[in-house]
Amino acid sequence: MGTDQYIHDQTWNALYRAIVDFLKPYGKEDACGNGDYWVVEDDYGGRRQTIDVFNLKMFDVEIIKGLRRLLQNLPGWDIALVLDTPGVGETIPFMGITIRRHEIIDGLQRQYLPTRFRNFEIPGSRPGTGYD
Amino acid sequence: MTGLNEERALLAELKFQLASIVWELKFHRMMRALKANFNPAQPRDERGRWTGGQGAAENEGVNDPRVISDATPDGWVSGAQYAGNGHHFVPRGVFTNDKYDFSPETTRAFDSETTGHLNDPSSNQYDGVHRTYNKAVEEKLDQFLERNNITSREMTPEQAKSFADEIKKSSDPRIRQLNLRIYMREIMRGFRLFRGRE
């Protein structure tokens, strides 16, 4: 294993643990959707962590700010909060929020969310997509 | 239907890319042969090197320090240096579920069943949802335990590997779709790299 890969693995694992610990007080983690979220344990090779969100309450400004703080010393890394509820990828498009040290990309298409979440705003975010 | 259409589109793209690569390879092989004045009848050793005549590598022996050794070092385990995270065929979130009580050895066996390091994160960060995959794997795991008439505690590391193999080969669309997408991305990345070198 090369040095770059070693550093990547160490960073990836440290960030994964930090996210798991940070989110504990905010909800129940469950891989099969029987909870509020799941921190994806697969490393697809990018400088990225993904959190599958089963309960919309996880799209919370305090959570987003806290996750962003975890990236304070990790430029180039991002955390994606990805909506994973029934119908996503079928009648509901893939969408979510990308958090980076220097920016937050809001890719949530409000028209697909329940009424009470349609006015949800993330201070300092910019609109975007999963391709940004 | 969306998933099926996506798979069909990916397969068609893959088929096209494969066909064009095969033709490119044939073309380059032919050009190389013409350029190098290749003569298949020329005497060669078991490694394909010339054994006589002008240009034969007379001084290049197996112990030649100028040549990187291809000997297998002691203690080397095939593939071990590439063992990494990648995609877990049996998600940790499933086999560490409180309803199971796997032995540490079996847990390690599950944990080692990954694709190895991957290098192509999705272009769309939001399209890799896992809930359906994980749920399907959990169902299959319950069925496996029932079929083999064992409790999770009795499951051996060999059985864990055998179960992981079932998941790799599974035709259940909930499982196949995610695995296929991951493989396709890696293959397509390979194509892009290959093309970039030409």
Q: Largest interface, counted with CB-CB under 8 A?
A: A-B, 37 and 33 residues
Strand content of chain B: under 5%
Could you tell me the radius of gyration of chain A in angstroms?
15 Å
List the domain count of chain B as a whole number.
2
Count of discrete alpha- or pi-helical segments spanning 4 or more residues of chain A: 2
Strand arrangement within the widest β-sheet of chain A reads 1-2-3-4-5-6
Spatial separation of the terminal alpha carbons of chain A? 30 Å
Low-confidence sequence ranges of chain A:
none
- Share of β-strand residues of chain A: 15-25%
Average of the residue pLDDT scores of chain A: 93
The tally of beta strands of chain B, per DSSP, is 0
Oligomer: heterodimer
SS-derived structural category of chain A: alpha/beta
Strands of chain A, total number: 6
Helix percentage range of chain B: 40-55%
Key phrases:
heterodimer; A: 132 residues; alpha/beta; 6-stranded mixed beta sheet; 2 helices; 6 strands; 23% helix; globular; B: 198 residues; mainly alpha; 2 domains; 6 helices; 0% strand; elongated
In short:
With 132 residues, chain A is an alpha/beta fold. Helix content of chain A is 23%, strand content 19%. In chain A, helix 1 runs antiparallel to helix 2.
Structure report:
The complex is a heterodimer of chains A (132) and B (198). Chain A is α/β, with parallel strands linked by helices and 132 residues long. Chain A has one domain. Chain A has 2 helices and 6 strands; from the N terminus they run H-E-E-H-E-E-E-E. Chain A has a 6-stranded mixed sheet with strand order 1-2-3-4-5-6. Chain A is globular. Chain A starts with a helix and ends in a 5-residue tail after the last strand. The mean pLDDT of chain A is 93. Chain B has 198 residues and is mainly α. Chain B folds into 2 domains: 1-38; 83-187, no CATH class. Chain B is built from 6 helices and no strands. Chain B has helices at 2-35, 92-95, 104-112, 131-147, 157-169, 173-197. In chain B, helix 3 (104-112) packs parallel to helix 5 (157-169). Chain B is elongated. Residues 55-84 of chain B have low confidence and may be disordered. The chains are: A alpha/beta (132), B mainly alpha (198). The A-B interface holds A 1, 5, 9, 12, 29-33, 38, 40-46, 48, 50, 52, 54, 78, 80, 82-84, 88-90, 94-96, 98, 107, 129-131 and B 2-3, 81-82, 84-88, 91-94, 97, 117-131, 134-135, 138, 182.
